[in-house]
Design brief:
By secondary structure, this protein is α+β, with helices and mostly antiparallel strands. The protein has 5 helices and 9 strands. The chain has a 5-stranded antiparallel beta sheet with strand order 1-2-3-4-5, sandwiched between helices. Strands 6, 7, 8 and 9 form a 4-stranded antiparallel beta sheet that branches.
Length: 184
């Protein structure tokens, strides 16, 4: 499994010591505002177990995100394969989730750019998507900063949410290998 580094960040395999701070992050209502609900410790731990298995199997995935200077775990950023059927799947998605204390430092953008470079480089992908609830404007701004384009015709109702749920409607962003390579 590859580790990625940026000027300030390390994207790495998960450690056992990450479970507790990740569970705290997933239990934070502010962090989970654009998800159906905060996660229990059991659900959070199970999520890390699945992430670790995906990283081992694919060689890429949702890397644990660490501040290089301090060694502090601050969340995840990386690439995953959505596990639901939609008009744009199968696909590889880029995503992130950071502890509230890490917000506003440009970490999500910095780590996402490293993830895109890996996706279009060693992973050999032709396209990467991202999606979020229409209400999640901070994540949409990250998508725009990393060069993704909103595919308005691709917006969708998330199939895992009940019709009428406040987060049901999702926006879809895309970036192709060609778009990535043409960035200046």
């Amino acid at each position: 499994m590859s580790e990625l580094t940026t000027d300030r960040l390390l994207l790495r395999q998960w450690k056992d010591s990450d479970y507790e701070p990740f569970a705290a992050l997933n239990a934070d209502p502010a962090v989970m505002e654009h998800f159906p609900a905060p996660m229990t410790r059991e659900a959070s731990d199970g999520f890390v177990d699945r992430i670790r298995a995906d990283l081992d199997r694919r060689g890429f995935g949702l890397w644990a995100l660490e501040v290089r200077e301090t060694g502090e775990f601050i969340g995840f950023t990386g690439l995953s394969v959505p596990s639901f059927d939609a008009h744009f799947t199968p696909a590889v998605e880029i995503g992130w989730r950071l502890a509230k204390g890490a917000w506003g430092n440009g970490y999500a953008t910095e780590a996402a750019l490293a993830s895109l470079a890996y996706g279009f480089g060693p992973a050999g992908l032709d396209e990467i998507v991202s999606f979020t609830a229409t209400t999640n404007l901070p994540s949409q701004r990250v998508m725009q900063r990393i060069g993704m384009t909103h595919d308005e015709a691709g917006d969708f109702d998330h199939p895992r949410l009940e019709p009428g749920h406040r987060l049901e409607r999702h926006v879809l962003y895309r970036i192709s290998r060609t778009q990535w390579e043409s960035r200046s």
